Amino acid sequence: MSLFKLNCKLTFFKLRPPARSYGSDVKKTRLHEFHVRHGGKMVPFAGYMMPVKYADSIASSHLHTRRQCSLFDVSHMLQTKIRGRHREQFMERICVTDIQNMGTGKSALSLFIDDRTGGILDDLIITKTDGDFLYMVTNAGCKEQDTRMLTEQLSIFKSSGHEASLEFLDSDEQSLLALQGPSSAAVLQSFVDGSTHLSTLYFMDSITATVCGVPDCRVTRCGYTGEDGFEISVPSDRVEAIAESFVAQDDVKLAGLGARDTLRLEAGMCLHGSDISAETTPVEAALMWTISRKRRDERRFPGATVILKQLSDGAQRKRVGLVQKAHGAPVRGGAVLFDVANGEKIGSVTSGCPSPTLSQNIAMGYVDSKFAKNGTEIQTEVRGQKIPMVVTKMPFVKPNYYSKPKK
Amino acid sequence: MIRIIKVTNRIWGNVNNAQRLSASVLRFSTSVVKDRYYTDKHEWIDVKDNIGTIGISDYAQDALGDVVYAELPSVGTEVKIKDECGALESVKAASELYSPASGKVVEINSQVETRPALINQSCYENGWLFKLELSSMEEISKLMNEDQYAEFIKQDHN
Fold this sequence. Notes:
Order of helices and strands of chain B: EHEEEHEEEEEHHEHH
Oligomer: heterodimer
Strand order of the largest sheet of chain B: 2-3-4-10-9-6
């Protein structure tokens, strides 16, 4: 949270220093030269120089992802393998997912929870692979605190006679690409080996495949855009060749952090540090669906005491979607939300942007639970002007996932 | 103009890179307008008689990205130099407008209110923002000229 607050205060043009003065603190992904060559506008983000956009504007890159397909470099995120006989028990101590009952080859959105406060330390995708390990992808911005927490927890776990180990994959060794959009399956299918059939790989399924001749790439049908798509983990010494093969396709364009942010907001997905943090619980954040019935009944997931009490008592505040009905200044994170009737403060916005798909301004934020019902009219303020907003169901844009047909 | 006042999240950092910069500087050198002056907030003011036309620089529009909403001062408003007098919103961020000089707002470009993209497409011509009846020519003489501004951008980001 503190990192977020700090960055919020930094001004756009005065932000210093540029790349070279960051010295050893700011890393480059193995695609850095590739991004620059393709016109990427590089900015420091979560310890890496990352492309915020390429030649196309954020809005057109966003729309291209919704209509065709975009390639994102997400190698700044932390990939980790968890091994050992008790790896599932170990992960269940720190995240909310029912890993023991997950199917092999399945992935899930999960949360690291502070056991004492019930606050969300990070959100992540965890995969139960068909190998002898769990695979997870956690946020770049939480890398330091996550590795510290995981290492500490592991040593406690092992001291009670359990077996587990952690392998943090360095971005110099292992890269991560996200291919997102309605034509991503057709594009990827043309680059995988003949024995890989993406038509039977459904949303949140994960396999290994040979991609562009590179064996053992991990392909997970997931993403951060609300579109069909894949996250592909590949060895860093081959990532550039693979990325070049993808972008050589007519349908595929590169997209940066800018479009990634507007796409995920339209999809109603949280950005840790903005929309969720150690200060918010899964009840407040409307993320209780990540905690299965079984784990709730056992009352043994991290933060269970606080979270289950809050669930039965009712949370004071709730994360909601908001839309501005009228054309006007878009509301941004940090804006205050008011009760229309008496002008009292009832919450605040955590993310907001003009939605390129809907051509209206959208936002998410936290409001007093009394105001969390869909259709509730509330107010915000932008530069002294009151702006009406309506609490709206998320996602704002209908997701386009490739889900297994229901029998 | 132009300080981003609200940032949507942790993503936004320094948008500068060397290539972009040299491209902007190159453009400046080929379109020198002698009586256009610049502020350190990346706004320009073009003075004819005692009327100043105000807009944002190419560097600023590029850094801001697609402008989706322009909030301009009302005609008749008296502004002082460096007063906050409006804002531009892009997909990624909001930035305030600061008046580059003191005076009275005599005209606004209502076209950019309905078509904010004009600011990106034509920041020095069709994308101008508002006109001021200037109360002090002395203020103008303290602003940067074309060459000084090009140098300012270079220094500001090296």
